[in-house]
Amino acid sequence: MQPAKAFTINARGAAIPVVGYGTMEFPEPGKAAGLVAHSIQCGYRHIDTARKYGSEQWVGEGIRASGIARGELFVTTKVTEDNAKADDFARSVDTSLKTMGLDYVDMLLVHWPQPRVPLAETLGALAKAKRQGLARNIGVSNFTVALLDEAMKICPEISNNQIEYHAYIRQDKLLAACRRHGLLVTCHVPLARGVLLQDPVVVEIARGHKKSAAQVALRWLIQQENVGVVPRALQNWEIEENIDIFDFALSADEMARIDGLRDRNLRVVDPEVRRPVWDVG
Ligand SMILES: NC(=O)c1ccc[n+]([C@@H]2O[C@H](COP(=O)([O-])OP(=O)(O)OC[C@H]3O[C@@H](n4cnc5c(N)ncnc54)[C@H](OP(=O)(O)O)[C@@H]3O)[C@@H](O)[C@H]2O)c1
Fold this sequence. Notes:
Elements: E1 8-11, E2 14-17, E3 20-22, H1 29-41, E4 46-48, H2 56-66, E5 74-79, H3 86-100, E6 105-110, H4 119-131, E7 135-141, H5 145-154, E8 160-164, H6 172-180, E9 184-188, H7 200-209, H8 213-222, E10 227-229, H9 236-243, H10 252-259
Parallel strand pairs: 3-4, 4-5, 5-6, 6-7, 7-8, 8-9, 9-10
Antiparallel strand pairs: 1-2
Helix pairs in contact: 1-2, 2-3, 3-4, 7-8
């Protein structure tokens, strides 16, 4: 299998491997580092973690066990909204790096907006981490159009917005804003946590390509401009399947049929506390 590193989305100086391995919630920590190592061995070059997930240690161990050089990999981590103040932010980045046993990350994201701390303070700390060489690239996550417009004025170095995006949610306004700002979009919950995989349209298209529903759901995303994905899987066969999506393409008609599912407007990640006012449409 060709390493996914060969397939990157590029913008504002950042080049992110288009398929990453998501590491939120490993129910069996004993197996977690092995899963990360397996993902790298079967071609993933992007690993997505966060301070909040508790997976940073397994990501570091998995990278070391994989036998692939650090420089070949793209590691993303995130600072939670509880650490939005500058001092807390810097401490969180240090803790992430120590926990992973890494000197730098390739992408550092503000995990969620924090309305109680001025955005300029948080973004100042984000930009400082980049200046210090602790992060090669910087970005945000779960930022709406309004927040993104504000963030880009304060910190034009931002190159990535990691957002919920899959075939069951319409994100046209936010995608347009990301494109207007020249940002890469990374889709979290790209399989809508599995809900999408039973969809009759997705299943039928998958059958036609002799692929799985997961592969079609991911392919629909990466065929869109500057869009990458970070699916999470706990089975080796799923990990292998989710990156084996470069040997087929969806036709314009198939893309349009899947586009038609978005009005279901299923938002999977919608925390009650500090949720921003989401863009609709
Ligand atoms: N920035 C943010 O705020 C944010 C929020 C949420 C998630 N994320 C990131 O996005 C990543 C992905 O999100 P997620 O893990 O919540 O959801 P997801 O990737 O949409 O879906 C994961 C679910 O799909 C199943 N699955 C995966 N591959 C499959 C396949 N090939 N066939 C059948 N089922 C398959 C998994 O099953 P098993 O578990 O049984 O393998 C799991 O139940 C996270 O791990 C995290 O890195 C970021």
